[in-house]
Design goal:
The structure is a homodimer of 153-residue chains. Chain A has a domain at 13-113: Phosphoribosyl-AMP cyclohydrolase (Ubiquitin-like (UB roll)). Chain A is globular and about 50 Å long. The first copy, chain A, contains three helices and eight strands; from the N terminus they run H-E-E-H-E-E-E-E-E-E-H. The model of chain A has no long low-confidence stretch (mean pLDDT 92). Helices cover 13% and strands 31% of the residues of chain A. The A-B interface holds A 1, 17-22, 33, 35, 37, 42, 44, 46-47, 59, 89-95, 98-100, 112-114, 116, 119-124, 126, 130-137 and B 1, 17-22, 33, 35, 37, 42, 44, 46-47, 59, 89-95, 98-100, 112-114, 116, 119-124, 126, 130-137.
């Protein structure tokens, strides 16, 4: 791996959109969006970000790595909780500023730090009583207790 | 709709993650990430962004609106091509910086400006011959010709 520049840059739009060269279009923070779905049932598990190193590590190892914006460092997803994500397939979008990972989740099969399978455990619904819109929980079964997994460290 | 501030802001993490109040956490550009999947078969169609106005318009109208970063304006998806997206369900993630739209697509049933159903029409694969990684097309059937739809305008 070329440590200084793992991926080429392509500014030509037709080449970026119609070519076979992986040339991720990192934003001004050096990140692309990563969308993670369950390889088995297609559930949207989480949305995260990758810098060039995280994407290269993911491609090389087959295990999802992201870039934590809050901690400003590489984040091997599931390293603490055991919920590692094995990448079954990875795709890129037309303008190469987003990747789609289809994964199998180890451990508790949970992708959310709240212990739930998916981070998207709340629907947005019209509710005049509670203001204009309210959130409705409909996958509210944590698969692990975050306090057991994270807070003793 | 309150034009100046359609959504409340919540900085308390437990309230943001465990509450029933929609309080999107817009980034420094005033955007959240919007992930759009096909309501019927779950395909990831596209990733885009919403400012507060786009999210409010989407929620009020039931038709997906985004914020175009390149054009810096509200973008009613499909307005030109006819591929409007009707929102069947909308969800928010744990920290409320991403929303998930499950949509039905009108017109050509295409979400990508290249004419394809999905923007994610290329897999990333290991390919030592073509450098380390190469892109492989596997949904390469445009449903409309972008030149007919966009370039005569």
């Amino acid at each position: 791996m070329n440590e200084t520049m793992p991926f080429p840059a392509i500014s030509d739009k037709p080449a970026l959109e119609s070519g076979t060269i992986l040339a991720p279009k990192f934003n001004r923070d050096g990140l692309v969006t990563a969308v993670v779905t369950d390889h088995e049932d297609g559930t949207l598990l989480m949305v995260a970000h990758m810098n060039d190193e995280a994407l290269a590590l993911t491609l090389e190892s087959g295990i999802a790595h992201f870039f934590s914006r809050s901690r400003q460092r590489i984040w091997k997803k599931g390293e603490t909780s055991g919920n590692l994500q094995t990448v079954e397939e990875i795709r890129v979008d037309c303008d190469q500023d987003a990747v789609w990972l289809k994964v199998s989740v180890a451990g508790h099969q949970a992708a959310c730090h709240t212990g739930r399978k998916s981070c998207f455990y709340r629907r947005i619904e019209k509710n005049e009583a509670a203001g204009r819109f309210a959130l409705v929980f409909d996958d509210d079964t944590p698969r692990f207790n975050p306090r057991d997994v994270y807070e003793t460290r």
